[in-house]
Amino acid sequence: MPRRPLENLTESMFYVLLALRRGPMCGMEIAAFLEQATYGRLRIGPATLYTVLSKFEEVKYIEEIAVEGRKRTYRITQRGVDAYNAEVARLSACLQDAEKIGGLLHD
Known about the structure:
The chain is of the alpha+beta class. It is 54% helix and 14% strand. The protein has a 3-stranded antiparallel beta sheet. Strand 2 (62-68) and strand 3 form a beta hairpin. It is globular, with a radius of gyration of 15 Å.
């Protein structure tokens, strides 16, 4: 069965939607949120960020709500919230599977 576009989100995509769940943001605010939320583990460059934002606009996960010069502000749509929730459920199921078979790392 062929995969649907954006069926599974990349880590960067997941955190972009997570950022926008907090409220409207511009690209620089999203990038800063990703770095802060992951304690520096995840950094996203402008090319990757704007590719993600473009894809998300294309599939109606986000919408542009303001433009001030070069600064563009985005917000998540209900379709984006649904995609985010589906990804959280998928990741939770993966963790539950790992827990069941003893695959989680515990020290």
